[in-house]
């Protein structure tokens, strides 16, 4: 992906969609129409990538599905790689909204965390086709891995508002904090990998048990690093 693409076609995957201008003023009708067209192109790309192999899907396929001209596509994106990144940005935004629900209900017991794990896994099943695109994106754009790391760090900041174990002081370079941060990342890796494998046929496991085991790992981490020590 070119630097030009990064400027126009791909925002940071941790950014969310906006309906207002930089200073909070309502968008003009023209800007709302522009965002609507971009959204239609993104949804069209999502559908086309689900129906076809990404490699053989074309810009024309996406434009036709969105019912716009090829020139309109290039007003919004420099390439199909750029619109792929937009699809994944949307997915990460939705995942972020789901992930931040951990701890919102008050008590963090095994049932509450298991239910949260179950919703997380279900979200992978719902967006099964786009989940497969994440590994592809890592091969297309090495920056994607760093962007995904930033997404997790943003998630830790959100979770850290309610759960001390996920609260990290950027100025704290102690080995203990470094270890806790690594453990937090590994927890998210385990959750994502378990959800990924359960989203597709072939893994013959008791899903309820998987949810419970992962939940217990999260609770162990949360309790070990709580101010009271559990």
Detailed description of the structure:
- This protein folds into two domains: 1-79, Homeodomain-like (Arc Repressor Mutant, subunit A), CATH 1.10.10; 100-230, no CATH class.
- It has helices at residues 3-8, 29-51, 59-66, 70-76, 80-99, 110-126, 128-131, 133-140, 143-160, 175-198, 207-224.
- By secondary structure, the chain is mainly alpha-helical.
- Helices cover 67% and strands 0% of the residues.
- The chain has eleven helices and no strands.
Write a compact overview of the structure shown:
The protein has helices at residues 3-8, 29-51, 59-66, 70-76, 80-99, 110-126, 128-131, 133-140, 143-160, 175-198, 207-224. The protein is mainly α. The radius of gyration is 20 Å and the shape is globular.
